[in-house]
Amino acid sequence: MAKRVREALRFTKGTPLLDPGAFPIGPDKKAKGEKKLLATGRVLDERQEALYAEGVGGGARSLLLVLQGMDTSGKGGTVSHVLGLVNPMGVHYTAFKKPTPAERRHHYLWRIRRQLPKPGQLGVFDRSHYEDILVPRVHGLLTAEERRRRYAEINAFERELADAGTTVLKVFLHISPTEQYKRLKARLVTPEKMWKYNPADLDARAQWDDYQKAYLDIFAKTSATPWHIVPADHKWYRNWLVAHLLAETLDEMDPQFPEPDFAVDEELAKLDTVGVPA
Q1: Which DSSP helix (H) or strand (E) runs through 169?
Q2: Could you write out the three-class secondary structure of 116-151?
Q3: What are the phi and psi torsion angles at 124 (to 5°)?
Q4: How many CB atoms lie within 10 A of CB 9?
Q5: Longest distance between any two alpha carbons in the chain, whole Å
Q6: What is the pLDDT of residues 154-209, one digit of tens each?
Q7: Which residues touch 223 (CB under 8 Å, ≥6 apart)?
Q8: What is the pLDDT of residue 275?
Q9: pTM beyond 0.85, yes or no
Q10: Contacts by residues 148-157 (CB-CB < 8 Å, ≥ 24 positions apart)
């Protein structure tokens, strides 16, 4: 599989972010995009099964998808529509909320380390360790020196993961303020969506520019592991892009089904001699 999607979406310092409503690569119509998602999903499912089997067979590798984005950008929707294409046995999903009092007694990476994917797993972080720079920065709780220290810690942490066999795929779901308004309003006027609404979302919306500036700084300072900017105004397109990013990454990892640790011919012969109770 060509790696064109990763290249098209990869963040480059000094280059403007992709338009949240743009179609930089792939399908530009919903019907075609949904059809392509199913095709991509079949490839993704095959690769993920091989990774899971590799881990069961003693392999050490795993894949971690990090999802970041403003409220309503579709982190949960992406998990539902994209990770729903693969076997849940091989998926480890974690949604990080505001740290609890117990978590605050530890280093901020403590709770992250506890949720890392095991060998063979596809891990998914719905928000991540980047919240521990993003939110404190916007609220003025980190000095410039503290931010620099956290950038260095996170870069070292991700290098450690790579050395241990975990491939990290970092994705920013890029939504426009106009589209966010529509989605927030939908949550307020649609009874079955009201449970998703959080009044605190409006506080973050009021600081939109501050969050965008903070994200740009994060992308520039932690890009040793590349960031990928996914236009997220169109949900179907966002889903196809993330599925394709995962499929391309797994294709490059090239996970292998383990060789059996038994003699296949002997087991076939024994199978023919084992009777089935009436």
Answers
A1: strand 166-174
A2: CCCCCCEEEEECCCCHHHHHHHHCCCCCHHHHHHHH
A3: -135, 125
A4: 23
A5: 75
A6: 999 999 999 999 999 999 999 999 999 999 999 999 999 999 999 999 999 999 99
A7: 11, 13
A8: 72
A9: yes
A10: 150/108, 151/218, 151/221, 151/222, 153/109, 154/109, 154/129, 154/130, 154/222, 155/221, 155/222, 155/224, 155/225, 157/109, 157/112, 157/129
Give, as one character, the DSSP assignment of residue 226. Answer: -
Mean residue pLDDT across the chain: 95
Task: Give the Å distances, CA to CA, from 196 to 31, 90, 183, 199.
Answer: 27, 27, 10, 10
Reduce the DSSP state of residue 227 to 3 states and report it: strand
Residue reference for tokens 């998703």: 196
Q: What is the DSSP code string of 48-85? A: HHHHHHHHHTT---EEEEEEEESTTSSHHHHHHHHGGG
Cβ 223 vs Cβ 157: under 8 Å: no
CB 133, CB 210: distance < 8 Å:
no
Query: Which of 129, 186, 193 has its CA nearest to residue 161?
Result: 129
Query: Shortest CA distance to 218 belongs to which of 170, 159, 179?
Result: 170
Angle at 83 between CA 71 and CA 227, to 5 degrees: 55
Which residues touch 255 (CB under 8 Å, ≥6 apart)?
47, 50, 51, 53, 54, 59, 61
Residues 6 or more apart whose CB falls under 8 angstroms from that of 60 comprise 119, 164, 165
8 Å CB contact between 132 and 111? no
- For residue 176, the SS3 value is coil
